[in-house]
Amino acid sequence: MAKRNPYPDAKKLLDFIDQSPSPWHATANMADQLRAAGYQLLDESTAWSLEPGSGYFVIRDESSLIAFQTGTAPPSASGFSLLGAHTDSPGLRVKPNPTTESKKLIRIGVEVYGGPILATFADRDLGLAGRLVYRDQDQLATRLVRFPTPIMRIPSLAIHMDRQVNEQGLKLDKQTQIPPLLGAASDELPAQQQFRQLLADQAQLDPDQIVSWELNLFDAQPGSFYGPAGEFIANGQLDNLASCHAAMTALLAQSGPGEQTRVCGFFDHEEVGSTSSKGAAGSFLADTLQRICATLESDPSAAKQALARSFLISADMAHAWNPAFASSYDDAHAVQVNGGPVIKINANQRYSTEALSEAIFADLCATAKVPVQRYVHRTDLPCGSTIGPITAAALGVRSIDVGNPMWSMHSARESAGAADHGMMIKVMNQFLSQKLPAV
């Protein structure tokens, strides 16, 4: 008899990440889950007809998604219960004219997207995934593409030619050394045509149909459990598909509509600043919330009233204490993997947490019988940020930044505690199932 996995939520997360090698795939997979649960897809370019107690979702440019379940009470009276996360992860994106050929070998030019730990992409089996834009007769259309097996690799230099690599670290020039090796050049096709043919074959298109693409490389190794009791997990894109999966799981676990309207927003481009039409700094969430109020209520001030009653949990991963680098942490705020959700606090508002929102989330954890931790970055190190401050400022809602602790953030293969994911789902479920606090 197979041994039961003690961390079923973590197993579902690893499966979700393995099926979501790009922001476009992650969004498509969440949309499939919503459809299966009876949620209705809305089109931003058409009028909406909404019913109280029903589920809907809307997608902007295929990699940002907002799902919501209307409440039994008007939003102006009950507010929005908001969960936010992001669909993108730092890594490498393929350039428009990517191929170079040297001594019968083809390499693929890439741009660095966000802030990955570049050295971790070396000597790995790299997959390729994303979306293609192609011409279908007189129309432009898109198609997701994913190569089922590893297709590229960034071979590092042998230590015999870089004797200082262990003392100075592996440093890769972004322009000349990061471009991965694709394969042997063909005597029949130029390198650029050879690459386009590979894409066309995988997408079942003619190469001449392909107009453009957005493609990213990813670690092709499946997610895994490790540790004596399988208490840790490893995969790419834990930052931040783990938060997306937790929020989606909590939303779909609701047994019926609540009094308040429940909203989950998943946004692309967080890793590059969120400033885009579909990023958290864009209008997507504000547009959606305003349209919900305009459709369900006649008072033109309903949206403002609703936002004043709302609460946002911005979920992004947190920095777990790493015993090999203990001096990089504020010892009084060093959080542990498998220690429960983390409240992220920064006096300079790199995180949106303030005292009241901190207390509200701590109460949610207590009600859900889940431990809670608090993280503060070292004062002498610059602190990263999230969609929390951006969204809170744009909407004027009370907000908190939280996340599960993890190691190796922005590595090609990240790591976290297997127990934490289920705990985050429990807290999010508690948040969505109860009335919003009146503060």
How would you characterize this protein structure?
With 439 residues, the protein is α/β, with parallel strands linked by helices. It has two domains: 8-89 and 236-433, 3-Layer(aba) Sandwich (Aminopeptidase); 91-219, Aminopeptidase i, Domain 2 (Roll). The chain has helices at residues 8-18, 23-36, 75-78, 165-168, 191-203, 238-252, 284-296, 302-308, 355-367, 387-395, 418-433, and strands at 40-42, 55-60, 64-69, 80-86, 91-102, 105-113, 126-136, 139-146, 181-184, 210-219, 224-226, 232-235, 261-267, 311-315, 318-319, 342-345, 373-376, 398-403, 405-407, 414-417. The strands form four sheets. The chain has a nine-stranded mixed beta sheet with strand order 1-2-3-13-4-14-18-16-17, sandwiched between helices. The protein has a five-stranded mixed beta sheet with strand order 11-12-20-19-15. A three-stranded antiparallel beta sheet has the order 5-6-9. The longest helix has 16 residues, at 418-433. It is globular, with a radius of gyration of 23 Å. The termini are far apart.
